[in-house]
Amino acid sequence: MSQIEKFSHLKRAFELDGFRIKDLNTIPSVKKTGFVTQQGFLEYEGRMGIVAEHSQAVVGASVPKGKKVFSQQTNFKKVYFLEGSPYEMGFLLGIMAEPEVSVMADTYVENVIPDFFDITFDPDSKIIQHIQEILVEILGEATEKMEKDIPPELISELVGIARGCEIVNPDTKVKLKALKFLNFGIDYLVSHIYTGEIFQHKKRKVPPEILRVPVMCNAISLTGDKVEDNKHFFGRDFMFPTAGVFQDVACLIMYNPIDCQSTGPGDKQYQWLPVLSQTAPGFVGSIAAMNQRGVAMGVDMLPGSLCNTERPGLNSLLLVRYATHVARDIDQVVDTVRNVQRGVSWLYPVADGKKKRACIIEAGANTGNAPFDYFKNIPKEYLKYLPDKDYFEKMRKKYNIPGPRKGMMVRWDDYTYPVEFINDFNKKIWKAYHKNIRMKIVSLIFNFISFLFDCLGTVIKDIRKLPKVMCQFLKQICRIMFRRVPYKQEYFSTYGFIDKTWKKRNCPGPFYFAPQRETDKNILIASNHYVTPEMRMTGMTDWITILEQEELDEFQWRYDEMNWIIHEYMQEERKITQQDAQDIIDFLRPTPDHNFCKICQKFYNPGLKQDPATVPIKGSVSLFELTELKMRSHFGYYGDKWIEVNFPQYLKHL
């Protein structure tokens, strides 16, 4: 099949999904490259690049001009089609999407760091500028050191993106170093925040006490006879720091790798599979992705101490992209994640439409063949209230559960939770929490005050703001210090809640064994916390308590709420439809009458705007139907339309 014939088929497939092909001859800078064909697509070394714009879905249609990155033009939601080697796919994208890549590599990188500060400083604060400069320099140097663990194919794609941007715009702000920072830097940063290790670089310090990882992710897998036509729905809601720009450039990318191989499960060579990905130009990773075999994968942020700050490795969006290219089924995804050099704690929801299986990979740093260290970071005051190693082995034998391997556990859809952990230990841990947390917080307060005075020694102009900053910090900490968290056995029933509403705060920080609510193998749910008892132990630290504070309750509430919502649908006589599944995974979407919890406001409606249509989506919400390989995705603003891609229409022409 010639490229012109292939283009004709792909054009028709896009039209069936409501998209129009963008004629790249109409963009002077792109046409000048000499790579645009008469038909309007890009061709480089015999490889094709296409920009498809939705005919109706506009980014920020309800948002006033001047409030968006590209407000001077109507910005239709896009799908990019790329084919070739990783370098060639990157090169094609760089030429077609240089303005969007530039925004991500420049504006996003510059603005994302403040999203990780827990204390609200004034925009012109010398303190925040001082810290931001240190972090940017540290992370810039650190990301260079991380390259050895990133698949060379993904590095090659970054090189291609940078080169494509230079070809189409010699004055581009896109530099390879910035692209590496964009793709590697967050893992390096969160590994230090999760562990509480102080950044120390040339005698300059950034105290982790003032840092916070914004965490807000949900995942569901639904299949079986309660789902219409026995379909398999896989839902992803991924929220993260967007630096005020991601929502305006987010997109779908369809990758068609040619002559690309990687070493995968069993140390065998695997040809990369075509993948449909939700991402943004400049990211080579995937927020959510599905390959041509009907295997879909996402990632949820997870505050845990099992991190390797010296070698953060391959994780998160990059690992989702890589695994979906090389894995043929869900078992190979698990093997791939297990064997790469991970260094940061994350959750990886995975579903397989052919096998009708799903799992949540609860991952920390890859510990190799070393014995799993259950107690490494747990405060000694709690150890006498927790199970020992023999108890874990006894429970795994009783329930026929594999043990942790290489720093991760897999919670399969048929996983049976050992309820003994809850019945034998939770009540004692709950009480111990009250005895121990207060002295830890007093120490934290002194550390924070010391930092402020050290910092003010170099930025004395902020001295008048010191009382305000201190009061804000102390107010947040005291909420933990003086609250009581009652224990009730009813918290742990199949459809129960530890926090019945978002206003409740009944969790003893991370110091408890979280229940698994799902009992039906056709249902799997995840938010932002470990469920397996083994991995749960790696999050039981005082630092995680301080770091996430009330968000720890919110993790549990979202998980419990999704479980209850699904339960209500299951009680109805009719079967769950695609729209039902979409509503479940998007249950936190802002509406005029939606009563948001304070934590949720940060992502789903900052400032509680009266018109939810103008609220930016701080990430994306996607729903996959894995038997027919369909993907619906919502990014941009909440008033925008969802878009849908039927992957098989394209695959048959590749």
Plain-language structure description:
- With 654 residues, the protein is of the alpha+beta class.
- It has a domain at 389-564.
- Helices cover 38% and strands 17% of the residues.
- The chain contains 20 helices and 22 strands.
- The strands form 4 sheets. Strands 1, 2, 3, 4, 9, 12, 13, 14, 15, 16, 17 and 18 form a 12-stranded mixed β-sheet that branches.
- A hairpin with an 8-residue loop joins β21 and β22 (643-646).
- α5 (126-145) crosses α7 (176-195).
- It is globular.
- The N and C termini lie close together (9 Å).
- Mean pLDDT is 87; it is low at 456-463.
Shape: globular
> Major β-sheet, in short?
12 strands, mixed
* Stretches with pLDDT under 50, minimum 5 residues: 456-463
Strand content is 15-25%
| Broad structural category | alpha+beta
- Radius of gyration equals 24 Å
Q: How many strand elements?
A: 22
Mean pLDDT across residues: 87
* Percent helix: 25-40%
Distance between the termini: 9 Å
Put simply, the count of helices is: 20
